[in-house]
Amino acid sequence: MTSNSTPTGNTHGSGLNAVVKATGGIPLNGRVPVQGSKNIALHLYAAALLADAPVVLAGAPDILDTDVCARILTATGTPARFWGGRLSITPATALTPVIDPLLGGRVRTTAVLAAAVLARAGQVTFPAPGGDAFCQRRIDRHLAAMRAAGAEVTGDGHLIRAVCARGGVRPFHVDVATPYGPSLGATVTAMLLAARANGTSLITNPSIEPEVTETARFLAQLGITVAFDGTGLYVAGSDRTGGGTFAVAADRIEAATLIMAAAATGGRVQLDGVTTSALPEGLLQTLGAAGVHLADEPSGLVASVPGDLQAVRVATGPHPGLPTDTAPQLAALLTQARGGSAVDERVYPRRDTHAAGLRRFGADVHATGTTVHVRGPASLRAAHVEGGDIRAVTALLIAALAAHGTSTIAGMYHLRRGYGSLPAKLAALGADITIHDVEAA
Ligand SMILES: CC(=O)N[C@H]1[C@@H](OP(=O)(O)OP(=O)(O)OC[C@H]2O[C@@H](n3ccc(=O)[nH]c3=O)[C@H](O)[C@@H]2O)O[C@H](CO)[C@@H](O)[C@@H]1O
Ligand SMILES: C=C(OP(=O)(O)O)C(=O)O
């Protein structure tokens, strides 16, 4: 193997088999902006398929998932173009009711995108969802919503077809509870189906994640009323919608990643474009218990570690609980905390691909059942590792920043799916971090 160093600038500047090289031991210090939320944007890209007028999603993150979704939309006949942090979407004149099987297999919102096409065209063919492969991505509640909306759903598990009778989707009631809590994705799927049904639909046990509430705000801008009460979520559909510009909210998971990276190095960072109100209660409580201090200052959110980091025993859960998407980074942070920590994963039972990677740095980490146990503080040493999914890669990056010596982390494809410029932001905070293109010798 040979390697060429490239600037850390935007991570898009180098190939997908590039590696990140980081020399740890430097407390992160400084100020960086937070990108638009990957997970909110993914749902807005699907919702934009419902618009009858052009839509601009301002602050869309510059990530691979944005590119893949823009190509999925364009392939349906709905031109979508990403430029300068904005995704511009022009309504289809003739909608092709297919989610491209290859592209659809690369993002996890495939069924949500399909629901929007079904709502508009009365039929759709789509593949099983993609996204991180740390566990099976079940979609039975999505299919239940499609059936409740009047579609006949058939398929072999790889390619699914949903077809409504003449007249298209109809108002419905669906329950989106799963054994793991409310399904975020199925809540949005049901909302998008209901948005085009002629009447009011009811979604019981809905998720209340910002992905849902931001999609509801966007639908309201299109002219579709979404109301919550103790029974569920009511959507009053319409066969005619508007468009306009909508701002993608800040990425609370990128914010959490930067906070944990700073805390693991004993640093202090200011994050522009986000306040503590954007962080779920479960995350705020966990960071507070671990000894991370967060303050809203006029210019942004400031994170620091006034004393020693402390062990915590926590569980992930549906919003406003501790987000599953922060558990790997939290495990990396806890390698620097005093005592025995436990992070129980209750949304995806075996989301623990980061545990083995963290051990390569000399961390005392092991997974038992659904729980990742961490004992600290550990004096980490540099390692050469590969992350297998988005947040696993960032957990390994955090470990590298806290370790003695120079580490290499592979898994750039996963990093780029979710982070537009994380290595550049870490470098701006003082980290010794570079990206190296790796070529076969
Ligand atoms: C509630 C929750 O924390 N959702 C997370 C989930 O959203 P995402 O929308 O991808 O997944 P869901 O919320 O639908 O899934 C939550 C759980 O329910 C199961 N399930 C889901 C749909 C279904 O029809 N049947 C079923 O059994 C899933 O397998 C999973 O164990 O992953 C995203 C990426 O990590 C996170 O950003 C979300 O915060
Ligand atoms: C798992 C995640 O995303 P995806 O489902 O898109 O892989 C994530 O955002 O942490």
TrEMBL record:
Gene Ontology molecular functions: UDP-N-acetylglucosamine 1-carboxyvinyltransferase activity
Main location: cytoplasm
Signal sequence segment: none
Catalysed reactions, semicolon-separated: phosphoenolpyruvate + UDP-N-acetyl-alpha-D-glucosamine = UDP-N-acetyl-3-O-(1-carboxyvinyl)-alpha-D-glucosamine + phosphate
Cited Pfam families: EPSP_synthase
E.C. designation(s): 2.5.1.7
Compartments where found: Cytoplasm
Keywords: Cell cycle, Cell division, Cell shape, Cell wall biogenesis/degradation, Cytoplasm, Peptidoglycan synthesis, Transferase
Pathway membership, UniProt: Cell wall biogenesis; peptidoglycan biosynthesis
Domain (Enolpyruvate transferase) ranges: 24-425
Function as written in the Swiss-Prot or TrEMBL entry: Cell wall formation. Adds enolpyruvyl to UDP-N-acetylglucosamine.
Family that this chain belongs to: Belongs to the EPSP synthase family. MurA subfamily.
Protein name in the entry: UDP-N-acetylglucosamine 1-carboxyvinyltransferase
Organism: Microtetraspora fusca
